[in-house]
Amino acid sequence: MKEMEQRILKDGNVRAGNVLKVDTFLNHQLDVELLDHVGAEFYRLYKDAGVNKILTIEASGIAIACMTARHFDVPVVFAKKAKSRNLDGELYTSLVKSFTYGKEYNVTVSQKFLGPDDTVLILDDFLADGKAMDGLLDICNQAGAKVAGAGICIEKGFQPGGARLRGQGVRIESLAIVEEMDDTTGTIRFREQ
Amino acid sequence: MKEMEQRILKDGNVRAGNVLKVDTFLNHQLDVELLDHVGAEFYRLYKDAGVNKILTIEASGIAIACMTARHFDVPVVFAKKAKSRNLDGELYTSLVKSFTYGKEYNVTVSQKFLGPDDTVLILDDFLADGKAMDGLLDICNQAGAKVAGAGICIEKGFQPGGARLRGQGVRIESLAIVEEMDDTTGTIRFREQ
User: What is the pLDDT at residue B100?
Assistant: First the structure.
């Protein structure tokens, strides 16, 4: 998606430690018009996949999921990272090791919101090592739900998650794939798609 | 907003400890069509207030904020609850004591996303004791931003936050105000608006 690549080049910042900061439009401040275009693009890619539910993980993924769900006219379910008093009943749980937060956490989804009748589109802002995606796929597997595929705003193509998941047969559609980036020069090169 | 009240009566569940579960449509599974109507209603209420930014707090608030921002055509900024590697630079920080999670946490917003030129609409799913709202108002105050008011999906009118904040002169618009609820009978009574 050219618009995503152009926006990353315009407003993204490469930092040391493989960090790509996109907080002006994707994960702290949110450009809702851009997210609407993101949603339209995921709809174009997955409209024939029988999707009846969108699954994401808090927090930034919720914005992308809502703005995409409008195009599909399906509900969103977002996995939670912390144990809340509002979560009760039977839960699906999967342990995830986060790069961004530097710790392990459980992702949880109430069993009543995911089951064998569901065909799920999984959405997230980033795909790097793929640990969060592993957790969401694990939860879909526990639920017996079918996974249509995943939609990612920015894939770090130089980290192993995307190749590994595609190798496992998961359909991954990334709107921008960063092939390499350099925090000393600030340059970003995208994979041709 | 009758649609919100009716949905709470249909799908909400009253639990012991003043918990109103609305996880089927508002804070775990998300009914995006309902949220679009919520956004339209907040726009109707605040369209003449000069709002140029919507502020919320992760996680559920993000869904409401995005679906409302579409109507205003303004960006969303969501306050973060945890220290992330993606947060750097100068931050506004305020300490909040959470009822839902049973602990204290810092809410943080990058200073580059909020300043004296902003007129802010603060959105959240619930208002009860008002602790999260205090934190967001404190951050707006630190930023020198003007607060147009707050939009709340469900106010627990039997808890003190709403009355206290209105007493401080903050405009609070709640789509449904629960006057009383009973976990033994499951009954919910709304305040007339």
Answer: 62
